[in-house]
């Protein structure tokens, strides 16, 4: 029909569609650009998080654990293994356990410091615990332990280690991914076991020992008996009767590739008595011979043992990097004393 | 009273309006907004982000290569660059696998290694100005590459390495032209 608007309707539709499409294309392109930009930033952040966290778990943590355990062993070994040696129990396993627990605790303290001072894009979201155990099948260290196993674990029940690298980049690692054992040639456990058995043996020998009063004397006539000579004689007698370092060490098996040394200092009460003596001294011969009575003295020293101080030092023959230098690992004990 | 041809006139007017609006929209979409600029920004941004990914892999790669394979000296360490750097700062003496080396030689070998590894990765990795710095409390190292290249911006990546007495920090600086 002429003059009708039926041809105008498709044109109106076309006009509307053009407007809608044109208006829509602007936000869509903006949104796509934004999403693409964000995705690329996410990919970059994820790559950074992954490489930094892998470095953290595969290198920083195991190396920090090793240095912490080695340095703790070095410092404790120079300080009586960090335990008290007075009134020790008669079971060497209990002493070994104390040495081991002190070592593990000190290692963990040093390890925590290193983790807290980490300057990295990523941080650990949970506490980590360093465990030390021997490389053999035994449950505790003995003199034949040649290596130390270190294991780092998370202190949560699911054993997940969460590494956080930015607001949105938390990476969770399972125990089998991060808990790789690190084995180092640290024989502190073997040295500690030796020290424990050495001092249990010394306690045993000292308990069997019945101290006496040891006497020495010296007399001179004419003249005076020497006090120091009398004391030397008494002391020699005391020492020959008291357990000495070698008699104790000979009863304890030494770890392979290790050297042992030490010393005993005996403490005692001393009494001395000096008595006058007289003697006849003759000079000359024949008709010129003359004799006279002269005075002299005898000194007697009595020593009563009060205590024995037994120092011991054991060191390995292999060097480790300890506190910035290659050194032999050692345990020195210088505070053990047995009262008689 | 109806006028003849009014439908045709309306059609012509609407058609004209459509053409004009389409031209206006085209103008808006192409010239009147910042889409071309945005596209350029996205491309630059994508390039920058992916280059950072490459930087990270390059950093990991150069630290964990066996140092021996690029050395011109006959010394054999039989271990990674990471281990060599860590042991260098560990103690006064330098030992690897129970063999002792002179520290002056080790620092020469590290310099040699970084120069060679930069050149080796030139084809597969964008040509940038690079600098590795190793910092400890007592000693610092710098190994540079493409020192004459003009740099528009620097990006740095860091790794901390524990040592017996503390830690050292290795930083890869990448300067983009």
Fold and architecture overview:
The complex is a heterodimer of chains A (340) and B (177). Chain A is α+β, with helices and mostly antiparallel strands. Helix content of chain A is 41%, strand content 32%. In chain A, the strands form three sheets. In chain A, strands 7, 8, 9, 10 and 11 form a five-stranded antiparallel beta sheet that branches. A three-stranded antiparallel beta sheet of chain A has the order 1-4-5. A three-stranded antiparallel beta sheet of chain A has the order 2-3-6. In chain A, α1 crosses α2 (92-116) and α2 (92-116) packs antiparallel against α4. The mean pLDDT of chain A is 88. By secondary structure, chain B is α+β, with helices and mostly antiparallel strands. Chain B has one domain (53-176). Chain B contains four helices and six strands, in the order αααββαββββ. Chain B is rod-shaped. Chains A and B meet through α1 of A and α1, α2 and β5 of B.
- Tell me the β content of chain A: 25-35%
Helix content of chain B: 40-55%
Number of helices of chain A: 6
Rg on CA atoms of chain A, Å: 41 Å
Q: Helix count of chain B?
A: 4
- Biggest interface between protein chains, with counts per chain? A-B, 50 and 52 residues
Overall pLDDT level of chain A: 88
Derived from helix and strand composition plus strand pairing, the structural class of chain B reads alpha+beta
Q: What's the structural domain tally of chain A?
A: 2
Any idea what the shape of chain A is?
A: rod-shaped
The coarse silhouette of chain B is: rod-shaped
Can you summarize the main beta sheet of chain A?
5 strands, antiparallel
Ranges of chain B where pLDDT stays below 50 over 5 or more residues in a row are: none
Percentage of residues assigned to helices of chain A: 40-55%
Succession of helices and strands of chain B: HHHEEHEEEE
Number of domains of chain B: 1
What is the strand and helix layout of this fold?
The complex is a heterodimer of chains A (340) and B (177).
Chain A: H1 8-77, H2 92-116, E1 123-124, E2 128-134, E3 148-154, E4 161-166, E5 169-173, H3 175-178, E6 182-184, H4 188-208, E7 214-220, H5 227-241, H6 245-249, E8 258-283, E9 290-322, E10 325-333, E11 337-339
Helix pairs in contact in A: 1-2, 2-4
Chain B: H1 6-32, H2 35-63, H3 81-88, E1 94-96, E2 99-101, H4 103-120, E3 129-135, E4 140-145, E5 153-162, E6 167-176
Antiparallel strand pairs in B: 1-2, 3-4, 3-6, 5-6
């Amino acid at each position: 029909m002429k003059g009708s608007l039926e041809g105008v309707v498709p044109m109106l539709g076309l006009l509307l569609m053009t407007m809608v499409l044109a208006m829509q294309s602007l936000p869509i392109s903006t949104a796509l650009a934004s999403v693409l930009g964000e995705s690329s930033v996410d990919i970059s952040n994820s790559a950074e998080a992954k490489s930094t966290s892998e470095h953290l778990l595969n290198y920083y943590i195991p190396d920090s654990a090793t240095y912490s355990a080695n340095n703790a062993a070095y410092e404790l070994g120079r300080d009586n293994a960090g335990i008290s040696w007075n009134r020790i129990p008669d079971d060497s396993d209990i002493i070994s356990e104390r040495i081991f627990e002190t070592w593990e605790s000190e290692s963990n303290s040093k390890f925590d410091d290193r983790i807290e001072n980490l300057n990295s894009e990523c941080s650990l979201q949970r506490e980590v615990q360093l465990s030390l155990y021997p490389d053999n099948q035994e449950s505790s260290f003995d003199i034949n332990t040649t290596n130390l196993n270190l294991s780092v674990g998370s202190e949560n029940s699911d054993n997940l280690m969460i590494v956080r690298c930015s607001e949105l980049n938390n990476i969770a690692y399972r125990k089998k991914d991060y808990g790789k054992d690190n084995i180092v040639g640290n024989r502190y456990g073997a040295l500690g076991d030796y020290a424990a058995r050495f001092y249990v043996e010394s306690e045993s020998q000292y308990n069997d020992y019945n101290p006496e009063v040891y006497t020495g004397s010296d007399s001179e006539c004419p003249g005076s008996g020497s006090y120091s000579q009398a004391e030397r004689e008494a002391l020699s007698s005391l020492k020959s009767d008291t357990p000495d370092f070698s008699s104790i060490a000979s009863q304890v098996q030494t770890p392979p590739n290790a050297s042992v040394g030490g010393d005993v200092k005996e403490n005692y009460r001393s009494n001395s008595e000096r008595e006058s003596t007289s003697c006849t001294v003759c000079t000359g011969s024949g008709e010129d011979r003359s004799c006279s009575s002269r005075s002299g003295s005898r000194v007697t020293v009595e020593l009563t043992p009060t205590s024995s101080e037994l120092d011991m030092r054991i060191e390995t023959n292999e060097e480790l990097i300890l506190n910035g230098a290659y050194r032999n690992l050692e345990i020195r004990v210088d505070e053990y004393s047995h009262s008689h | 009273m109806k006028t003849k041809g009014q439908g045709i006139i309306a059609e012509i007017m609407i058609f004209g309006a459509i053409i004009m609006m389409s031209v206006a929209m085209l103008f808006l979409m192409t010239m009147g907004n910042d889409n071309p600029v945005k596209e350029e920004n996205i491309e630059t941004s994508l390039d920058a982000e992916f280059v950072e990914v490459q930087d990270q892999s390059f950093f990991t790669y150069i630290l964990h290569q066996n140092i021996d394979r690029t050395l011109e000296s006959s010394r054999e360490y039989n271990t990674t660059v990471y281990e060599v750097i860590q042991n260098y700062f560990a103690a006064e003496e330098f030992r690897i696998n129970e063999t002792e080396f002179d520290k002056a030689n080790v620092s020469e070998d590290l310099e040699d290694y970084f120069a060679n590894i930069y050149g080796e990765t030139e084809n597969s990795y964008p040509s940038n100005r690079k600098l590795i710095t190793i910092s400890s409390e007592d000693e610092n190292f710098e190994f540079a590459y493409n020192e004459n290249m003009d740099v528009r911006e620097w990006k740095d990546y860091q790794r901390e390495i524990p040592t017996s007495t503390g830690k050292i920090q290795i930083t890869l600086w990448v300067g983009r032209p």
